[in-house]
Amino acid sequence: MEYLLILSLVLLTCTLGYAIRCKSFEERLRRERHHLQKKLVTAQQKNERLKQNLQKEQGIIQLIQKHMTESILILDDCDKITLANDSAMELFSIDRTLLETHSIFTLTDYKPFLDAVRMTKKEGSARQLISIGGEDYRAYIRRVDLTDRNGTIILLINVTDSVKAEKIRREFTANVSHELKTPLTVIKGFGEMFGSGLIRDTEDVQKYGAMIQRESERLLFLMNDIIRLSEIEEHIETHLTPVNLRKAAEEVTSLLSQRAQQNQVTLLSDCQEVCIMGNESYIQELLINLIDNAVKYNNPGGWVRIVIKSEGEQAVLCVKDNGIGIPKEAQSRIFERFYRVDRSRSRERGGTGLGLSIVKHITEYHRGTISLKSELGTGTEITVLLPLKQT
Ligand SMILES: Nc1ncnc2c1ncn2[C@@H]1O[C@H](COP(=O)(O)OP(=O)(O)OP(=O)(O)O)[C@@H](O)[C@H]1O
Ligand SMILES: [Mg+2]
């Protein structure tokens, strides 16, 4: 009996223990499941966020690719284009439907570019200046690891403006050196002759002394013009004040009247009261250069007419002459620095070829435009349009 009671008690304890264990196991399971669910939701949210970020980044990359002016191309190992932005497609005039089947070597025929791509396979990278459709491009080409195989990344940047600026800079340096060389050689030569006592005769002293003076003046004019040009280019003087064009023209005309008389050229003027916002000394310089040219490149008995008037929103400043005129083929070049139609004739008249370049820069400084009409043997007319001063 006692034995049975003990057995029942043991059985009861075991059942109870089992039940309690089952209960706590269930509880643990429930908690575990809840925990896992929470983790899953967090992971899903994280995944969603990553997906959204990825889409956003892809969108940004696509936007950059679409709107960047630089051209990007990615080639696979067989030189087929795997990625090309709009700018690259346009640059090489590539048909998108041919991308999967054709290599870059059959899609374009720009030899220096294709040579650079070939070279990259051997050397790993290449940098090449190439010309496409009259524009200059710097191509940066590099071999890269594209996850499971090699490929090539190509970046093309339009450098036309900097190539042009570099050319102008080189020409400018060469021209300045050339312009400096001649007067300096004359000054040095006669200086040495004076120093060694070879020139003693009073007449010779006067003659060669005058030559040294003339060449020194040329140097000074040249230096002044170069300094002026760089000042205008740098926009150093930016202070704009009301400028009365009629007054400026009268001042410049009286300044140049003696020179005109010497050349037997008549100065005529037809100037209205017109005002602009500008830099007075620049405007005077513009007028001096235009009127000086009209007097200088004229014939005895010739005339120069200065016209100032307003037309709509613009001031019109026109200098017309009946001088020697400018040949057609030279007309597009006369605003270039150091360009002279007849170098020897201009030199003999003291010109450096910077005057009209200064005029053009001054016009642009005042947001104006300049135009030229000329006929060889008949005369020249240069018209500058400047925005009128608002009243
Ligand atoms: N009114 C004009 N008639 C004929 N030729 C002109 C006239 N104005 C300019 N030219 C030509 O254009 C060239 C350039 O003119 P620009 O004023 O720049 O230089 P320059 O007169 O030779 O020298 P600088 O003005 O620097 O003393 C001149 O050398 C001349 O050949
Ligand atoms: Mg001149």
CATH class of the largest domain: Alpha Beta
Which residues sit in consecutive blocks of at least 5 with pLDDT less than 50?
A: none
The small molecules bound here are: adenosine-5'-triphosphate, magnesium ion
- Note the gap between the termini: 127 Å
Give the CATH superfamily of the largest domain.
Answer: Histidine kinase-like ATPase, C-terminal domain
What percentage of amino acids are in beta strands?
A: 15-25%
Number of helices: 10
Number of strands: 12
Shape: elongated
User: Nearest-angstrom radius of gyration?
Assistant: 41 Å
Characterize the biggest β-sheet: 5 strands, antiparallel
Structural class: alpha+beta
- In total, the number of domains comes to 4
Briefly note the CATH topology name of the largest domain. Heat Shock Protein 90
Query: What is the N-to-C succession of helices and strands?
Result: HEEHHHEEEHHEHEEHEEHHEE
- Overall helicity: 40-55%
Strand order of the largest sheet: 2-1-5-4-3
